[in-house]
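name: query_chain
kind: protein
chains: 1
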Amino acid sequence: MQTVPREPGVYYFRDVAGKLLYVGQSHELRKRVGSYRHIHPDRHPRRLVRLVHQVRQIEWEICESPEAAIERERVLLLELRPGFNRAGVWKPPPWWLRVSLDTGVEGQGNDLSPLLRVDLCTDASLIANAAPVAAAMEDLVGEGSGSPLRAERQSFLLGPFPSSFRWVHAAMLRCLHRWLFPEIPLHALPAGLMREKALRQVAWALPTTMTAEEVARQICECFQVSSGDGDSTASSLLSAFTSLVHDDLPPMEKEFWHSQVEAVVKFVEKLGGRPLKGEAQ
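structure:
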């Protein structure tokens, strides 16, 4: 182990025949590779024990920085797909957020309640069936008199988003529901929104104080960047989500909503300067 360098890099485990078993990375190769000497059947998973028992050759590749090592490992896993690696050996499809506007659902009397649908999808074929985001945004904002979008059904897509959006999506739906219906207590939230992975298809009959067009517009603004210099515009939706956390809440409920809002805010911040589909690259 003394021959293993201390620099950041990636390492390769091979069996007696030279077959690649595992690829990993570390900011300090000697420390990470040396840790495998302490694998014990009573304290570690059987899969890891089997790996260590088969290793006969150890190779490494020095990288210029820990970040470079992470990127190098990512590429190697997709190219080589070692048998003992599980995460990162395939590239998951991107997530898309489809927002649909309906004229409404049957309400009291002859009035129609506005209906907003938010679907999480990975099917790239949906892109061809949805309006470009930029065009949809113009319609939602309105022209001249400020008239909103008028159509029986209008759909458009936000994305593509990385695989981590699956978890942020759940937090976003909870915050969105809480913002739309603040009178509903936490214990009464729909069960489908409280799962670790929330429902991929959700529809709301909105309260009369809000329009589906306005809510959809705010969703668009939340996940887009107005300028190419990486500076995000202030999102009214994020501001509304932040206001969900206040001192009047019970401590545990306050902590819950803080974690949900924080997950959405951090994801939006990581979007950086990446434009939405339909905007000029």
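note: DSSP finds eight helices and seven strands in the chain.
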